Amino acid sequence: AYSVAGWLEDVQTVLSEHFKDGSLPVFCGGTGLYFKALTAGLSEIPAIDPAIREKYRELALREPDGLHGLLRDKDPESHGVLRPGDRHRIIRALEVADSTGRPIGWWQKHPSEPRIDTESSLKILLLPERQALRKRIGERFYKMVEAGGVAEGENFLKLGLDESLPAMRAIGVPHLASYLRGETSLDEAIEAAIIASRQYAKRQSTWFRNQLGSDWQIFENAESAVETVLTQR
Questions:
Q1: Distance between CA atoms of 44 and 47, rounded to whole angstroms?
Q2: Phi and psi dihedrals of 162, rounded to 5?
Q3: Do the Cβ atoms of 172 and 193 come closer than 8 Å?
Q4: Cα dist. 165→1, 152, 160 in Å?
Q5: Residue 37: helix, strand or coil by DSSP?
Q6: Using 50, 70 and 90 to split pLDDT, how confident is the model at 233?
Q7: In this structure, what is the dihedral angle of CA atoms 197, 200, 206, 212, given to the nearest 10 degrees?
Q8: Cβ distance 133 to 126 under 8 Å?
Q9: 144-161 burial by CB neighbour count: b if 16+ within 10 A, else e?
Q10: Model confidence at 185, in pLDDT bands (50, 70, 90)?
Q11: What's the rounded Cα separation, in Å, for the pair 93 and 82?
Q12: Closest CA to 11 of 43, 48, 39, 46
């Protein structure tokens, strides 16, 4: 398991130890929330009481459909924003409210300082044309399968990891698991994983446009972005 807070600590170590000579650090990814935290700070939520965390993990296993209703009483603001099926974020909101005595929205309005100087940073967002991206997503998953993805998935599942771990929910894992259990054909598993990938990409694109600031420059391809970097450095 990993977190944005843990990543920011690693960022600070990298910035402190490896760029004292004036080298130019480049951060490349990935998950939009990490970049938002890097450039705008992160809500410094205190450590969650382990007993409270375990309580909601167990409740999610016993009564998953009741979590959203419980959130209505604990954190009405989050209840109005999160969908009933967004179990991971619902659990997070519940444990934060219980453990800290404040809703998660309060903490999000009190972020830490950014880890980098945003004024002197060049922020680039690659958003390929949608139809081209959809095609590439399909081609990519087929190549993953051809390169041994099914065998890799089988070996991964043999580890017997906790179903709640993020890795177990990674796109492709539950779909190939369904095939390996004999519940679907390989073609059906591949198609379901491709659809999930495209849906995720669409959500990412929407998030990037709505959550990242206007100082992010948007490009459809890497070549144009590189030319901009070389020009503005």
A1: 9
A2: -60, 130
A3: yes
A4: 7, 18, 11
A5: helix
A6: low
A7: -110
A8: no
A9: bbeeebbeebeebeeeee
A10: very high
A11: 10
A12: 39
Q: What is the C-alpha to C-alpha distance for residues 167 and 187, in angstroms, rounded to an integer?
A: 22
- Identify which of 86, 49, 79, 82 has the alpha carbon closest to the alpha carbon of residue 64: 86
CA angle (56, 61, 66) in 5-degree steps: 70
Reduced to 3 states (helix: H, G, I; strand: E, B; else coil), residue 48 is: coil
pLDDT in tens, 89-110: 899 999 999 999 999 988 878 7
Q: Determine if the pTM surpasses 0.85.
A: no
Report DSSP state, residue 114: -
Which of 44-58, 154-168, 176-190, 209-223 is the most confident on average? 176-190
pLDDT of residue 232: 72
Six-digit token string for 220:
């459809």
Q: Which two tokens stand for residue 76?
A: 């009405």
Residue 124 phi/psi, 5° resolution? -120, 135
DSSP 11-32: HHHHHHHH-TT--------S-H
Sign for the pseudo-dihedral over CA of 12, 117, 210, 80:
positive
**Residue ranges in the chain assigned as alpha helix (H):** 4-18, 32-40, 50-62, 67-74, 76-81, 87-100, 104-108, 130-144, 150-157, 173-180, 186-211, 222-232
